[in-house]
Design brief:
Elements: E1 8-15, E2 23-29, E3 32-38, E4 52-57, H1 58-63, H2 65-75, H3 77-87, H4 93-96, H5 99-106, H6 111-117, H7 122-129, H8 131-141, H9 147-156, H10 158-163, H11 166-186
Helix pairs in contact: 2-3
Amino acid sequence: MASWLPETLFEIVGQGPAPSKDYYQLLVTRSQVIFRWWKISLRSEYRSTKPGEAKESHEEFLGNSHLQVQIALIFGARILDYVFNLCEGKFDFLEQLSDNLLLNIISYLDLEDIARLSQTSRRFAQLCMSDELWEKVVQSACDTITPDMRALAKDIGWRQMFFTNKLQLQRQLRKRKQRQESQGNSKF
């Protein structure tokens, strides 16, 4: 396994399916799958129940269908598939990268690719819609960005600024400047 990976590869917590109030944690480390549970009940026979824990190596987990079923019931089939992939050494290395690094990489993509990437996950959708990304895209597309353009981008957003045609931008900049001048004159 790659040594630069963090010790904890994945962690999720949740409550059991209704009517259960039990609390669960699933932790996948570089070498183990750890499943913990806490019994939550008002019934007197369960009050003394201690939390439980199952620790298994990745190989043991892949062969333990009972634990797999529990994880699927509590966290869903997608989480189980993801844990399977981690245990088999199939890592999503993009998930390990910081948002700033991903934004830098995404800023070099074509617009069509950015649109496609935004549909792959919530994280990429947020990154592809972020003002930080579109500021980088506008900066790479424009020779210079004036302070007026920055101020307008702050008002309407860098993405909107990128997709607005040049004439509309000039009109909006002119209106913004006129508003500032009229506000400056009204103060005196």
